[in-house]
Amino acid sequence: MSNLEVDSIETVCGDFVSGDVPGSVVEILEPREVPLGGPRAFTVLRTLPQRARSLVGAWCFVDSYGPVPADHAGTMTVPPHPHTGLQTVTWLYAGEIEHRDSVGSRALIEPGQVNLMTAGAGIQHSEVSTAAATELHGAQLWIALPDRSRHVDPFFESFTPQPVTLGDATLRVFIGTLAGASSPVSAFTGLVGAQIDLPAGGRVEVPVDPTFEHALVVDRGTPRLQGVTVPTTRLGVVPAGAATLHIEAGDEPLRALLIGGEPLGEQIVMWWNFVGRSHDEIVAFREQWQSEVIAGSTTSGRFGEVADYPGAPLPAPELPNIRLQPRG
Ligand code: MN
Q1: What is the fold, at CATH topology level, of the domain defined by 13-261?
Q2: CA of 244 to the centre of ligand 1 (A)
Q3: What is the average per-residue pLDDT within 284-304?
Q4: What is the DSSP annotation of 56-85?
Q5: HSE on the CB side for 7, CA within 13 Å?
Q6: Per-domain residue ranges for the chain?
Q7: CA of 236 to the centre of ligand 1 (A)
Q8: For residue 76, how far is its CA from the centre of ligand 1 (angstroms)?
Q9: Ligand 1 centroid to 80 CA: how many Å?
């Protein structure tokens, strides 16, 4: 899913707060509401990217949504659309989504199960919520591929992590390694991603790789991260250097995603559903999508075909009248 338009990024500055934990500074990023297409208005909260910050490790995009009623199929309908140069992570708290893609995957995405699509050189996929659940609640995140890996052949992986206990917390590690639990899905840079749950009043000290940047995507509750309050729906970012993340739930239970990774160390250009390295490369991706899939002049190119999707693929929007600038 998602329709990223760089020129829609608002000028939101991160708010840096010093925590009670010595030497700790937490950057609090506010979400902005972004309407997605579909038969019903469907609004997501986007916390990455924004002007104040483009990346946490290689994580380059964070959309959170719901809970919204999902009493019929198609509450979320995202027709076939392309991706390049990134991995998409779909993680649900509730609901069910059917994923189809041009490498032949047709998968039901369920809560507690990570679905990781490596777009590499190019792929297209659709995501449509099903009628199987009464609400839809989750997140979609993107990971930028490093330059050395961004032209790999596309593929799709799925994994259901076993919950592990650390302190008062329950962790579901869906990418990388944390608290002795590892995920087998593919990572091309040092990465970690996990759902973290704490009961009201609970706390945990999570040992982490001090070379990684980390962020907490708060779904429910108002936790303290390194002693700094991170309100619901905000992103709390801890820069590289911390060997321990101190997380306290406060008066309510906490549910959040903990993401992190080694700094990407590369400038990227993101526009719509593409990640590239230059304005001209994005222009070429867009033209290839429009000619290959929207105009249908070839089916053997970069983006392949999504079999049996009951509808038309998404045309790309017009490019802005400015050159897209690398960020990172
Ligand atoms: Mn997508």
Answers
A1: Jelly Rolls (2.60.120)
A2: 33
A3: 87
A4: BTTEEEEEEEEEEE--STTSSEEEEEEEBS
A5: 8
A6: 13-261
A7: 25
A8: 12
A9: 8
80 touches 1 (CB < 8 A): no
Query: Taking a C-beta distance cutoff of 8 angstroms, is the pair 3, 272 a contact?
Result: yes
For the segment 50-67, what is each residue's pLDDT rounded down to a tens digit?
A: 888 999 999 999 999 988
Say how many Å lie between the CA of residue 289 and the centre of ligand 1: 14
> d(Cα 44, Cα 34) in Å, to the nearest integer?
5
**pLDDT (mean) for 179-192:** 98
Bridge partners of 82, per DSSP, are 124
CA of 241 from ligand 1 middle (Å) equals: 32
Task: Say whether 138 sits in a helix, a strand or coil.
Answer: strand
Taking the model in full, what pTM does it have? 0.93
Please report the DSSP string for 233-279 in residue order. Answer: T-EEEE-TT-SEEEEE-TTS-EEEEEEEES---S-BEEETTEEESSH
Ligand 1 centroid to Cα of residue 167, in Å, is 35
